[in-house]
């Protein structure tokens, strides 16, 4: 049996009563209404490559792929690779992208699905020869949380005006078929 005359027991009882009453009266410290900001990586800026202009487009998502267009080159008449020099049939257009898999499962990226859209509404696929000559991948496995920066090379008519790029990600795990793609304006 507890002896309520004991000063230690009386102090503990008073402290417990104070805690319970404070919790019931709502007189405690208010909680912050806004959660703290999510920390971000500090990535150093890099110079834009010669002949390229930076593109300040917001990231977009299609399926399991998150994309950000960061650079554009138009009007290139020839490309130089490690072992080849090759003229464009029209003009080469290079779109620099960051592709990311923010999902928890593996995903993939298929450069052959990506399309360059011109002002007249025509859609052009990558130029596979240019892509290979410039050592850019056709397909990439993207592990969970993987991020890759790369170029997409297109050969379009010389007089065509670039309007947008349509980017396609892999469908989420367990979903069959293909995604609809998402367009990023380039004009």
Molecular structure report:
By secondary structure, the chain is mostly beta strands. The chain has a single domain (53-185), classed as Immunoglobulin-like (Sandwich). Helices cover 13% and strands 39% of the residues. The chain has helices at 7-25, 128-133; strands at residues 53-54, 60-62, 65-80, 85-100, 107-110, 115-118, 123-125, 139-142, 147-156, 162-167, 182-185. Strands 1, 2, 3, 4 and 9 form a five-stranded antiparallel β-sheet that branches. Strands 7-6-10-11 form a four-stranded antiparallel β-sheet, with no helix packed on it. The chain has a two-stranded antiparallel sheet with strand order 5-8. The longest helix is centred in the first third of the chain and has 19 residues, at 7-25. It is globular and about 100 Å long.
**Global structural class:** mainly beta
Number of strands: 11
Number of domains: 1
Question: How would a textbook summarize the main sheet?
Answer: 5 strands, antiparallel
What is the 3D shape?
globular
Determine Rg (CA atoms, Å): 28 Å
Q: Enumerate the spans where pLDDT stays under 50 for 5 or more consecutive residues.
A: none
CATH topology: Immunoglobulin-like
CATH architecture level-2 label: Sandwich
Biased composition (Polar residues): 27-39
Domain DUF4352: 87-162
Protein name: DUF4352 domain-containing protein
Pfam family, one: DUF4352
